[in-house]
Amino acid sequence: MTLICLIKMTQEQCTHRNNVQSSEKPQVYKVGIYGWRKRCLYFFVLLLMILILINLALTIWILKVMNFTIDGMGNLRITEKGLKLEGDSEFLQPLYAKEIQSKPGRPLFLQSSRNVSVNIVNNNNKLLTQLVTGSSGFKARGKMFEVKSTSGKLLFSADEQEVVVGADRLRVMGAEGAVFSKSVETPHVRAEPFKELRLESPTRSLLMEAPKGIQILAEAGDIQAICRSELRLESKDGEISLDAQRIRLLQLPEGKASTSSTSSGTRQTVYEVCVCPNGRLFLSQAGTGSTCQISNNVCL
Fold first, then answer.
1. Which pLDDT value is given to residue 48?
2. Where do transmembrane segments lie in this chain (predicted)?
């Protein structure tokens, strides 16, 4: 009896619990963003899409304006040999390049508002050669300067030791000619056709020296040698030749002969040229014999 009562009591309790649980409503938990948070999220997503579209449009516009292509940008093209620029280009910073050349048959034009400088440096960044063209002029700095023709012939070269002019003719167009503070070595000095050749030393002496000889020739004019104190023609091993149809020695002093040796009543028109032991020339009245010894008072 006792066991049967316990079983009946347990069944009644279980039935009562099920009735109590069935009478209660189930609870629902919501997952996600709702309300004003949801609206803010949609707004930010929309704003981000608008910014992406504007950025994409600006990128496309920049690519179109700058003319970006697979080969390069604008006038700049990337080739196998390097960079290729078409048209005018402006560099705001220094340009470092191994070689700069223009198109075949087109000139290379460099322009600057101040100057154009080309510098050659060594591994220690020490200046070796410099070429500067500016408003003040053209300047070149280096150990040697050379100018050659298209055939490779040397036209002009200059270094610390000497300056060489390799052209067939050197022309000086200045009205004052050429001024040399030191000596000049040349095998031939000639004036232009129908022009005068003038060698002048205003304050010093003029010396012409050659180991084998000096030839002064004027085929269609006169030769004048003017000095203030002394004119000397000297030949150590050879002779001095004056080759002309007429040789005139002007303003030579005239020696005075003794009264007994002169003929009275006749005007003397013939003279002889005498030479003193010191090399001075003078005139002496010509006679049947030499009168140099008689009229040698000029040599005293």
1. 95
2. 40-63
Pick from 223, 226, 270, 273: which is nearest to 249 by CA?
A: 273
Structural tokens at position 241: 């030749």
Q: If you ran DSSP here, which 8-state letter would residue 261 be given? A: G
Interacting residues of 79 by C-beta distance below 8 A, sequence separation 6+: 71
CB 295 within 8 A of CB 256: yes
Q: Which two tokens stand for residue 286?
A: 């010509």
Q: How far apart are CA 198 and CA 183, in angstroms?
A: 16
- Which pTM does this prediction carry? 0.44
DSSP three-state, residue 18: helix
Query: Is residue 260 within 8 Å of 278, Cβ to Cβ?
Result: no
> For position 49, what pLDDT does the model report?
96
Kindly provide the residue ranges of all beta strands, DSSP E only, lying in the chain, ordered along the sequence.
Answer: 72-73, 76-78, 83-85, 115-121, 127-134, 137-141, 145-148, 154-158, 163-165, 271-275, 281-285
Across-strand partners of 134? 115, 137
Cα–Cα distance for residue pair 293/273, rounded to 1 Å? 12
264 touches 241 (CB < 8 A): no
For residues 96 and 294, give the distance between their C-alpha atoms in angstroms, rounded to a whole number.
90
Q: Residue 210 corresponds to which tokens in the numbers above?
A: 């050659």
3-state helix/strand/coil string of 163-199: EEECCCCCCCCCCCCCCCCCCCCCCCCCCCCCCCCCC
Between CA 30 and CA 48 the distance in angstroms is 28
Report DSSP letters for 195-230, one per residue. Answer: -------SSS------SS------SSS------SS-
Task: Name residues of the chain where pLDDT drops below 70.
Answer: 1-33, 71-72, 74, 257-268, 295-296
> Rounded to 5 degrees, what angle do the CA atoms 187, 191, 193 make?
130
